[in-house]
Amino acid sequence: MRLSQVLRPKEPGNLRATAVASAVLVVVFVAGASAWPWSPKRGLGLAFGFLATALFVFEMLYPFRRPKARPLGTAKAWAQAHVYLGTLAMLAVLIHAGFRLPRGLLGWALLLLSLWTTASGLVGVWLQKWIPAALAEGLHVEALYERIPVLIEQLVAEADTLMAGADEVGERFYRTEVRPSLSRPSPSWGFLLDVRASRDRALEPFRRVGEFVDPSQRTLIDDLMNIYTEKIELDAHYSLQGILRRWLVLHVPTAGLLMGLLAVHVFAWVWY
Amino acid sequence: MSPRLQVLVPAEMDQLRGQPIFAGIPEKARDKVIEKVRKYIHVVSFNPGDVVLREGDYSDSAYCIVEGAVEVVLGAGSGPAERPEVRGGAHVPPAQRPGARPRAEGMVGRGRGTGGTVILSAMPADVTPGHRTILEAGEIFGEIGALSRYPVSATVRAETPVTLLQIRLPGLRMLLAASKEFKKFLDERYRERTMARHLRSVPLFEKVDDEFVERVKEKADLLSFEPGQVIVEEGTPADSFYLVRGGFVKVGVRAGGSDLAVTYLRKGDYAGEAALLLDEAWPFTLQALEHVEIVRIGKDDFKALSARYPHLEESLWAEMVARLKLRGAASRNPVSSEYLQMAMETGLIHGESVLLIDLSTCTRCDECVRGCADAHGGEPRFIREGQKYRHWLVPTACYQCTDPVCMVDCPTGAITRSIGTLEVTINEPTCIGCSNCANRCPWGNIIMVDRGEKRPDGKPVELATKCDLCLERPEGPACVQMCPHGSAVRISFKDLERVTATLR
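Output (C-alpha cells, whole complex):
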C-alpha cells in the first residue's frame, strides 16, 4: 500500500501536463534535428538553452514562496511547479546539448551538476513521500523533532522512577542492558527501509527477563518494555525526520553552484 | 463601557431561602436542593452604569435581581442573520474572503453568530432596538442564553446599585431538575419571549406568518435530555417534529451489530421530516451527546399548521433526501462514519473550522507553523502537537467552536466573534491576561504567551493568544496555504461529504 502511495502523484494533472510538455519538447527536437544540423549555439538548440536557463531561474525562486513575500498561489502549487518544471529543465538541458556528451570542462560540470541537482531533488520527492507514510503507518507515537531529546529524558526519568521498586534481577537488567541505550537518541538508517526495524530483536531481552523475575515484578518489566518501545519509536522519528531535514544538503548547495556556473556559461556565450 | 471586574461572594443559605427561584421546590427538599446548588450561586454587586451582560457576549449564567434595578438596551445588531460562514481554507466562499474585514479593535455588535440566529435569548422582556427596559428585584435574566448557548443580544447595565445572584449553568440545570415550577416558569418564559425569534431564525420557518408561530408556541413541548439519553429510537413510530434548541444530538443508524454515525444536529437543526411526510418509522436514532434542549411539535399539530405553506413540505422533502444521502454515504464509507463518531466523542464537532494535518503526507517541515508565525508578528498561534487519530493529527489550534465557551466571562470583552462570521479573536490591546478564556477552553487551544514585560508586582505579563484563522490575511489561513504538501486542512465535521473526501 505504501508503495502505491509513494508512486501516486499528488496532482495527477500536473504529471500529465509535464508528460505532454516533455513529449512536445522531444518532438520539436526530433523535427528540428532532422531538418537542420543541431547546435546548442544557434536556432532551436539555443532556444532550448534559454528555456533551460529560464526554468532554472524559476527553480531558484522557490524560497520566495513564504507569506512575507506575498506569493501568488499556495505553497503546494509552488512545490509542484518546482518539481515538475525542474524535471522539464533537465530535459531542456539534454535537448539543448542535442543528447550529446559535452566537450569542455564547463560543459561537463554543467551537465553533471544539472543531473545531480535534478536527481537529488527527485530523491527528496521520494523521501518526502516515503517517510511520512512510513511514520504514520508504522508508529503510534508522534513527536516534534526538536523535542525528541527532551522526550527521551522524560522517558529515562519515568523508567528510573519505575525501576526504583524493582528486585535485584530487574534492577541489574535495567542498569546494564536498558538504561544505556534508553538515555540518548539512537538514530539508524535501518528505519528508512523498515520503520519497525529490529524492534522484535530489541524487545526480546525484556521477554526473556520477564520469565526469570518474580511474578510480582512482571508488570514492572512490561511497563519498562512499553517505555522502551516508545523510545524506539522516538528513535525512528529522530532518524527519519532528521533525514527529511538533511537531504537538502545534497540538493541546495549544488543548485547554487549550478546557477553560478550557468551564469558563467551565459556570460561566456554573450561575450565570446 | 466599564469592565466587569466584580468580586463574587458565595451565597449564604439564609440569603437563598427567601428567593422566589426556590419557591417551587417542596419545602422538605428545599434546604437540601439549595445546599447542593449553592456552590454554583454567587452574590455579585454592580454600581450604576456597570455592565452586567454585554451584547454579543456568551454567558453561562442566569442572574436573579435581589436588590436594585438594571436597564436592558438593545443595540442595532439584533436582526435575524444568515448562518455565518467560517473562513478556513477550501471551504471559504471566495466572496467572503475579506480584504476589508473589520479589524479586531473595530468590532462592534459582537456575537451575530451561531446557528444563524441572534435572538433575545437572555432577556425577560420585550425590548425594541434603541429603547431601554428596566428590570427590578425578583426578575431573572440570562437564563435562556445560558441554557441554549446563544450570544447575548442586548446589553444589561446596572441602573441603580444592584445586587444579583449569579447562577451558573450547572446550578441552573439542577434547579430545573429539582423544581417543576421553576422549569415551568422558564419554559413559559422561553415560549413567550424567545421561541418566536428562535423559530424564525430556522430557515424552514423563515416565511411563515405570525399566526403559525403563535400556534407553534401553544402546541410545542419543551424537552430536556441528559448526555447519552436516546431521544428517539430507529424503527419506532415517528410521531413528532424535533427542533434542537441547544446542545448536540447524534444521528445514527444500526448497521449490522454496530451503530453508524450519520451526522449530528446542533441548535437550529431539526429532525422528524420522515414522520411528517411519509408516516414512516424513524429512519435514525437520535441521541443526546450532551445536555440537549428540544422543541417538539406533534405530527398532527405540525401537519395542521403547515397545510397552508407548501414550501414547508418542499423544504422537508429536500431535507429528508439530504439526510438519506448522508445515510447512504455513511453506509458506503464506514471510515467517514468512524471519523464522525470520533469527532463526536472527542468534541471536534464543536469546531466550525478544525485544523487537521495528514501525517501520512506531512514532512514535518514546520512550514505551517512558520507561515502562522509570519502572519502573526513572529509568534505562531498554534502548536503542531496534539491528539492523533489514525494518520490525522489534531494540533493545538482553536476549533472556532459553535458555542465558544472561551467567550464566557472575559472581563474586558477582549475575546470577540466578529459580525457575520464564526471566527473568535482576541483583541490584544484590551486583553488583561486574566487567563479566563484559556482556562475555559475545553481543548487547551488558547495559550498564554509571555510578552517579555513585567507587571508592577514583578510577575511576567502573559496575554492570551489563539488562532484567528488569519482574519487579516486575504489569502486565508496561512497554515493551510503554506503547507507545501497540502497536508494541512480545515474542516467542519458537519460537512460529511468533505469529511469523506478529505479523511480517507
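Residues 2-139+247-271 of chain A form one domain.
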